[in-house]
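> example.struct
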């Protein structure tokens, strides 16, 4: 008979989740359970016609851009998934912003960008809103800290110990730093669709600095 701890069967999913939370609660970070699907994106700029010209997006109109972005989002994000949007969600009045939100699948956690409003009404469109946010999840069965910000950072919490950093704002125009475990997750870099944690990991693994930080990451946790 398997041992029961605090009403949970040892080895069960609930037991493992409880153990994971106990192990990392000292960091005071949000926990991203591995069994859930997580996505990341930034700089959708829904309803922003001028962004087509500014960024050379391949659309003939803002209506076409909006439809492609919404379709691409919903083609990969399921209703039960969580997607971290790293800022610059959409332009327009609150009614228009709400209409965009209602069409998009998933639980949306917004990391506020420079085009995002600061109001309770705007914030109510999302499940959470932050200016800077950290999550703890896992990659290849090892704990992983990820720092999320609209803007690219040169250093961040845990950056010398294997923590990753995801950002937007630059629309793919900021040269990638092969020595940094960071990545632009904006739609202009990823065929106008969200990117999964798996694809982010496979991309970061190819960086020159990845192998040098694996040991440091293990020591940090």
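> example.seq
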């Amino acid at each position: 008979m398997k041992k029961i701890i605090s009403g949970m069967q040892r080895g069960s999913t609930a037991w493992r989740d409880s153990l994971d939370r106990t192990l990392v609660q000292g960091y005071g970070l949000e926990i991203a359970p591995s069994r859930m699907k997580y996505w990341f994106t930034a700089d959708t700029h829904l309803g922003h016609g001028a962004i087509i010209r500014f960024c050379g997006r391949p659309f003939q109109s803002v209506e076409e851009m909006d439809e492609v972005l919404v379709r691409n989002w919903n083609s990969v994000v399921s209703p039960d998934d969580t997607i971290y949007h790293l800022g610059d969600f959409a332009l327009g009045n609150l009614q228009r912003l709400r209409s965009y939100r209602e069409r998009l699948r998933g639980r949306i956690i917004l990391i506020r960008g420079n085009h995002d409003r600061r109001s309770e009404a705007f914030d109510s469109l999302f499940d959470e809103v932050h200016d800077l946010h950290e999550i703890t999840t896992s990659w290849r069965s090892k704990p992983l800290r990820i720092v999320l910000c609209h803007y690219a950072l040169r250093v961040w919490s845990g950056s010398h110990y294997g923590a990753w950093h995801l950002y937007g704002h630059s629309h793919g125009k900021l040269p990638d730093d092969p020595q940094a475990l960071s990545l632009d997750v904006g739609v202009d870099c990823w065929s106008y669709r969200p990117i999964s944690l798996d694809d982010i990991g496979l991309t970061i693994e190819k960086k020159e600095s990845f192998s040098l930080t694996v040991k440091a990451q293990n020591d940090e946790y």
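> remarks
The CA atoms of residues 3 and 10 lie 6 Å apart.
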